[in-house]
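Note to self: keep these together.
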Amino acid sequence: MMENIKAVYHNVEVIRSTRRKKTVQAKEVKGKIFVYLPAYMDKEKEQKYIKEIIKKMEEKKRREKLNNNNLLTKRAQQLNKKYFDGKLRFEIKYVTNQNHRFGSCSPKNKRIRISDRVADMPQWVRDYVIIHELAHLIQPNHSKKFWQLVNRYKYTERAKGYLIAVGMGVDEKIDDKEED
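Structure:
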């Protein structure tokens, strides 16, 4: 009996093993994805796993690329200096799991998360989302004082309109505090 059976699909190589009973694993080496499957898995399940694996790996690469070059952090620091006198301390990064809001802020942990959907929007919209979340570090609600902070940005209303227009539906939120 053959121990390993190989099949190659574009940049994916499937390796089947009779010793592997239930688990599916994958790794990427030099742009090629190796998928390890049980020998007895049917082709339909194989294709399902391959699609899921490729999707997860693409998401991971996109997330790493977004956060690798520190452009978001640099821009947030510039806006912090301009609108908040550079007094705010925070961590900021893009995330791929925010599908119903554009940004979130955890004032307690000083952590800001920006939806990766915002990365492809115009700079003035990205700036608004960042300023909105930075303001939550000072005012963790949407009070009058909060909006006074945010409205110092001259494109606030325009950016809010843009975000409403590209929103995913009526439940779309510009932000929410993260639960700690």
